[in-house]
Design goal:
With 426 residues, the protein is mainly β. The protein folds into two domains: 115 residues, Jelly Rolls (Sandwich), CATH 2.60.120; 302 residues, Metal-dependent hydrolases (TIM Barrel), CATH 3.20.20. The protein has four helices and 27 strands. Strand 4 and strand 5 form a beta hairpin. The longest helix is centred in the middle third of the chain and has 15 residues. Bound molecules: zinc ion (ZN). Zinc ion (ZN) binds next to loops.
Length: 426
């Protein structure tokens, strides 16, 4: 996650007569702030003491007394003693407790650094398991591994349980955003529920009507529901046999690419052709260290305006995402004016501008519409730019493939959601 730092030096001179007062050093944070650091760089020598705390526009967010001279607050984590969470815009202040002051006057200097988030692609894994079901890692180990892998967010989706979502662990140095989840695991298929701490107090179902009713309830409560590995025949019960009703997301890329993923991709393409705007996502389904099923393989890249759970989920629901083999890329920009993947462009014959990065010579690039492959070429460098004028297609999406010598097969490297064209959807 890229953040732009902005430094604010703050200075105040106090007098011994102010001993035991709590004075404030105000500073302003705009709506784009997502992190603030502070550091006391000048104050009275020991045994004199300055206490520190932080207040947002409405409440005190933490107090570390004279124990610490610096701290960090982010959306997801904070120095002990401080409350992570939202960053309301407006007047914040450092609280200086003048507990013990030397005679005369004392100069106190603090550096506040706030960090700005600009809209960007965040990388994550939407399907993982921990020790809370049949995985190996603790939640902490999973999040640490996610940071090492280069992921910005990870969903914890253990089978038919929510206990993994209740584990509290935070590390200000690796603020991977944890999306609460659960893999709704029935004997006739699996679905990921994303966004609720305790989504299904009773997950048991007997018939399709139960699944449709609970899916509807989950969506009304703010969750996203994704059908997982819908064509997987690896073990009994993995394939989704509950139908498409009410399903807005489909996991077309589960772990290593294999025929069941291709079947899911083909099914998605068929639904798109029928006018559906179901969103394609990916997830590794990692259960711990493995040479085969690895965290971040595949990676889902989500265009994110706000680096929060709700911000990421809103973008996923809108289809503002693409999936790649791993966190290394490729990178994609596919836009028609201000619209991009997942959006419906409601104007005649728009130009769609596509830019790919981090590809290799020989990679196969395909543009796909409702009739199939519209355009295909092989990359001749590590980037590719192309503009097409849409002329009557219902949608255009992009795939990049790489030839794998070891398999003697072309395998997907990137699958994008479509840009939808024309004025209607169903
Ligand atoms: Zn799973």
């Amino acid at each position: 996650m890229r953040l732009s730092p902005h430094e604010i030096p703050l200075t105040i001179t106090v007098d011994v007569s102010q001993t035991r007062d709590i004075v404030t050093l105000p500073f302003f944070l705009p709506t784009t702030a997502v992190r603030v650091d502070w550091k006391l760089i000048e104050g009275p020598p020991a045994p004199y003491v300055i206490d520190l705390g932080l207040k947002d526009p409405t409440r005190v967010r933490g107090w570390s007394g004279g124990t610490r001279t610096e701290g960090t607050l982010t959306l997801t984590s904070a120095t002990p003693g401080y409350l992570p969470g939202s960053f309301p815009a407006g007047s914040w202040c450092l609280l200086l407790g003048l507990y013990r002051l030397p005679p005369g006057t004392t100069r106190i200097r603090v550096i506040v650094t706030w960090f700005e988030f600009v809209p960007q692609w965040l990388r994550g894994d939407l399907h993982t398991h921990t020790e809370h079901s049949d995985g190996v890692w603790t939640v902490r180990e999973l999040l640490q591994q996610a940071a090492v892998t280069g992921l910005d967010f990870v969903a914890t989706t253990d089978h038919n349980t929510a206990s993994q979502n209740l584990v509290t662990w935070q590390d200000p140095t690796s603020p991977v955003i944890r999306i609460p989840g659960m893999e709704w695991t029935t004997y006739s298929g699996h679905a990921n529920i994303l966004g609720l701490d305790d989504p299904l107090p009773d997950w048991r179902v007997n018939q399709t009507e139960d699944v449709i009713r609970l899916t509807d309830q989950l969506k009304k409560a703010g969750a996203l529901v994704s059908v997982n590995h819908p064509y997987d025949e690896f073990q009994p019960g993995l394939r989704w046999d509950w139908g498409d009703d009410g399903i807005d997301l489909i996991e077309v890329w589960n772990g290593p690419w294999r025929p069941s993923n291709q079947a899911a991709l083909d099914h998605w393409q068929e639904r798109l052709g029928l006018g559906s705007q179901v969103v394609a996502i990916g997830g590794s389904d990692t259960h711990g260290p493995s040479d085969i099923v690895q965290l971040g393989t595949p990676t889902t890249w989500v265009w994110t305006e706000s680096p929060s759970i709700s911000g990421i989920l809103q973008s996923i629901a809108a289809g503002h995402l693409y999936i790649t083999q791993d966190p290394k890329g490729p990178t994609l920009s596919m836009q028609a004016g201000r619209f991009h993947v997942g959006d419906r462009v409601d104007c005649q014959n728009p130009d769609i501008v596509i830019e790919l990065g981090l590809i290799e010579v020989g990679d196969r690039i395909r543009l796909i519409n409702e009739s199939g492959i519209e355009y295909e070429t092989l990359a001749v460098s590590d980037t590719w730019s192309h503009t097409i004028i849409a002329q009557g297609q219902h949608f255009i999406r992009l795939e990049v493939h790489r030839y794998r010598d070891v398999w003697q097969h072309w395998l997907p490297l990137l699958i994008s959601n479509p840009i939808y064209l024309g004025g209607s959807s169903s």
